[in-house]
Structure formats: structure tokens, C-alpha cells
Write a structure and sequence with these properties.
Elements (H helix, E strand, L loop, with lengths): L2 E6 L7 H14 L4 E6 L21 H12 L2 E7 L7 H10 L6 E3 L6 E3 L5 E7 L4 H6 L4 H14 L2 E8 L7 H16 L3
Parallel strand pairs: 1-2, 1-3, 3-6, 6-7
Antiparallel strand pairs: 4-5
Helix pairs in contact: 1-6
Length: 192
Amino acid sequence: MKRILLIQAHPSGDSLCHGLADAFEAGVRDTACELRRLDLRALVFDPILHHGNRGSQSLEPDLVRAQQDIAWAEHLVFVYPNWWGSMPALLKGFFDRVLLPGFAYKYRPSSSLWDKLLVGRSAQLLVTMDTPGWYYRWLWHRPGHNQMRHTILGFCGVAITRISEFAPVHGAPPAQRAKWLKQARNLGRKPG
């Protein structure tokens, strides 16, 4: 039985991302996996890391619980829109505040090298985009996916196992959206 943390990071509750997260959750409920869910829009926290990693900024209770959920999880699932080639500010602010030194990574003394403190966890991404997937891959070289794979999750030791793109959203007819929701439910039935 796998422990899954589902993180929905669209700031609107009536978005396609929210529907994809609901569908994924329904799929997981058909399995023996344990699931916890975070809807970032419902959390109360300041997304700005005011002093970088040089100063002290207390974590709000919702972020303390988020760290506890991440520590509990074996598999992380992120559902978010791709805006300006990457994630929305809400998700970036969440990462800035939660993936802190001592929790997600630790620099070695007198070295620029670090230890990855979230090793052993996997992740998958469900990403909506208005840009066609082929264009995002071949012309822009997937900057948001690379950021998640290498400089955020990978930096902390989390290995991305699957990236599912739902695109282009702009102009997608209802039948296409229904197909995407079914796909997300099927992904939930086989997480990882």
C-alpha cells in the first residue's frame, strides 16, 4: 500500500486542474493506497520567503502540516497549470516556504554540495497548458518540467516518474475535457 500526497496548486476551485485532482483522487480511492490531499488555495500562508534561507521565518500551521504530509508520503502528485512556461506563483511560493534547509536538503559544512533529505520519494505531475505539448517540448525544451525534475524536486531527492500533459486547454471542447478527466482517474488507479 502506497502513501500518496496529492497537491492541487491551481488558485481557482473551478479550474480544470481542480477537476483533474478530483478525478485522480477518485481513481486512488479505487485502490488500496492511502491518500492525503492539499489544495494550496485553501492554505493560509505567506508565499514570500522574506529573508531567503538566511533568516528565520516561522512556518504557519498549514505549512507545518504540509511538511508533515510530505514526510509521511512515499509518492507526491502535483496538479497545476503551466503559466509562462512554468508553475503558478502559488506553487512556487509553497516550495519556497516548505522545502527548507534541514527539511528538504542540507548543505555540507564548508562545501557547495548538499544532501538530499527527501530521497526515496517519487512524484508525478499532471500539468495543464494552453501551449501544444509538441511545441512546449521541441521549441521551448520543457522549462517548467525541467525545473521540477532537476532544480526543485530532484534537488531534494524526489524522483519524477511520470509527467502527464493536458494540452492545449484553450479552445478544448467539452468532450476533450471529459477525456482528460477520465485519463486522470485512470492515472489515480495506477499512481507512480
